[in-house]
């Protein structure tokens, strides 16, 4: 095949030039000028919440084999700061801007979305369902179908922008939760956020992170995420963005075969800020080597025969 393969994919009403984008909180375009606008499918800044959150600053710990333990996922400078200081820097022609939103009540999410509605440069909203729901018992919104539905439908009622539900992997009934998000008005899914996990220092006998559990991301979670993507794809026709342990182009292809239309790269960026360029090149090389004209030809094409 002499022609360049077609890397474009469709997520809701967006045509992305590449299936590779960063995962929220792991990469900042401002500090990585080597990325041209065309090198990525989309850019997603760190979660923005209504108010400032500077609470949990416990140390991040690198684990073996491209995995990362961290306790710093729910931090934000708040929507005021974000709109005035951050948004202008992120408005880049040709690169779709997707804003990831955090909150501790459904009303907080809706308030942030209402504030962002006027910005035409924002092409889609990603809801971080791994946030604690303080209207309930403080458990993550994404653990139950009911809280997933009520959050997504609340946000749906205040915006026409495409909504991407970033699901939690810490669940047993992912298909029910997927359908609840779809019924609430989601247009796509990100599968998934990091896993809750624990690590203990056997000398001090204390948890290695400041609190009991932390977030585990990177290579260690990839097979778990691949199976979750597969299960989501079984029950919904909405596009899925795979997130969890994509360290190479082959990892991305694996997720796409399981049913993802695109992938997010998180931990790999923390380990190597040029990771997304390498991953994109490896996807292209795979398509050329296998004479596949378009990445879309591979979505959900795992062979179960
Ligand atoms: C340091 C760090 C910060 C993160 N911050 C956020 C965040 O602000 N919002 C969010 O939805 N996910 C956040 N995540 C989760 C990632 O976006 C991603 O979904 C997860 O790490 C799984 O992908 P990975 O294995 O490629 O890292 C963060 C992850 C890490 C490692």
TrEMBL record:
<feature type="binding site">
    <location>
        <position position="46"/>
    </location>
    <ligand>
        <name>substrate</name>
    </ligand>
</feature>
<comment type="pathway">
    <text>Pyrimidine metabolism; UMP biosynthesis via de novo pathway; orotate from (S)-dihydroorotate (NAD(+) route): step 1/1.</text>
</comment>
<dbReference type="Pfam" id="PF01180">
    <property type="entry name" value="DHO_dh"/>
</dbReference>
<dbReference type="GO" id="GO:0005737">
    <property type="term" value="C:cytoplasm"/>
</dbReference>
<comment type="subunit">
    <text>Heterotetramer of 2 PyrK and 2 PyrD type B subunits.</text>
</comment>
<keyword id="KW-0560">Oxidoreductase</keyword>
<dbReference type="InterPro" id="IPR050074">
    <property type="entry name" value="DHO_dehydrogenase"/>
</dbReference>
<feature type="binding site">
    <location>
        <position position="218"/>
    </location>
    <ligand>
        <name>FMN</name>
    </ligand>
</feature>
<feature type="binding site">
    <location>
        <begin position="266"/>
        <end position="267"/>
    </location>
    <ligand>
        <name>FMN</name>
    </ligand>
</feature>
<feature type="binding site">
    <location>
        <position position="128"/>
    </location>
    <ligand>
        <name>substrate</name>
    </ligand>
</feature>
<feature type="active site" description="Nucleophile">
    <location>
        <position position="131"/>
    </location>
</feature>
<dbReference type="GO" id="GO:0044205">
    <property type="term" value="P:'de novo' UMP biosynthetic process"/>
</dbReference>
<dbReference type="InterPro" id="IPR005720">
    <property type="entry name" value="Dihydroorotate_DH_cat"/>
</dbReference>
<keyword id="KW-0963">Cytoplasm</keyword>
<dbReference type="GO" id="GO:0006207">
    <property type="term" value="P:'de novo' pyrimidine nucleobase biosynthetic process"/>
</dbReference>
<comment type="similarity">
    <text>Belongs to the dihydroorotate dehydrogenase family. Type 1 subfamily.</text>
</comment>
<dbReference type="InterPro" id="IPR001295">
    <property type="entry name" value="Dihydroorotate_DH_CS"/>
</dbReference>
<dbReference type="GO" id="GO:0004589">
    <property type="term" value="F:dihydroorotate dehydrogenase (NAD+) activity"/>
</dbReference>
<feature type="binding site">
    <location>
        <position position="100"/>
    </location>
    <ligand>
        <name>FMN</name>
    </ligand>
</feature>
<feature type="domain" description="Dihydroorotate dehydrogenase catalytic">
    <location>
        <begin position="7"/>
        <end position="287"/>
    </location>
</feature>
<keyword id="KW-0288">FMN</keyword>
<keyword id="KW-0285">Flavoprotein</keyword>
<dbReference type="InterPro" id="IPR024920">
    <property type="entry name" value="Dihydroorotate_DH_1"/>
</dbReference>
<comment type="function">
    <text>Catalyzes the conversion of dihydroorotate to orotate with NAD(+) as electron acceptor.</text>
</comment>
<dbReference type="InterPro" id="IPR012135">
    <property type="entry name" value="Dihydroorotate_DH_1_2"/>
</dbReference>
<dbReference type="InterPro" id="IPR013785">
    <property type="entry name" value="Aldolase_TIM"/>
</dbReference>
<feature type="binding site">
    <location>
        <position position="166"/>
    </location>
    <ligand>
        <name>FMN</name>
    </ligand>
</feature>
<keyword id="KW-0665">Pyrimidine biosynthesis</keyword>
<feature type="binding site">
    <location>
        <position position="24"/>
    </location>
    <ligand>
        <name>FMN</name>
    </ligand>
</feature>
<protein>
    <recommendedName>
        <fullName>Dihydroorotate dehydrogenase</fullName>
        <ecNumber>1.3.-.-</ecNumber>
    </recommendedName>
</protein>
<feature type="binding site">
    <location>
        <position position="128"/>
    </location>
    <ligand>
        <name>FMN</name>
    </ligand>
</feature>
<feature type="binding site">
    <location>
        <begin position="244"/>
        <end position="245"/>
    </location>
    <ligand>
        <name>FMN</name>
    </ligand>
</feature>
<feature type="binding site">
    <location>
        <begin position="46"/>
        <end position="47"/>
    </location>
    <ligand>
        <name>FMN</name>
    </ligand>
</feature>
